[in-house]
Amino acid sequence: MLEAAIKEQLGQYLQMMEGDVVLKVSAGEDTVSREMLELVDEIANMSPRITVERTTLARTPSFSVNRASEDTGVVFAGIPLGHEFTSLVLALLQVSGRAPKVDESLISQIRAIKGSYHFESYISLSCHNCPDVVQALNVMSVLNPNITHTMIDGAAFKDEVEQKDIMAVPTVFLNGESFGSGRMSLEEILSKLGSAPDASEFEGKEFDVLVVGGGPAGASAAIYAARKGIRTGIVAERFGGQVMDTMSIENFISMTYTEGPKLVASLEEHVKAYNIDVMNLQRATRLEKKDLIELELENGAILKSKSVILSTGARWRNVGVPGEIEFKNKGVAYCPHCDGPLFEGKRVAVIGGGNSGVEAAIDLAGLVKHVTVLEFAPELKADAVLQQRLNSLPNVTVVKNAQTKEITGDDKVNGITYVECESGVEQHVELEGVFVQIGLVPNTDWLGDVIERSKFGEIIVDRHGATNVPGVFAAGDCTDSAYKQIIISMGSGATAALGAFDYLIRN
Question: What pLDDT sits at residue 248?
Answer without folding.
Answer: 73
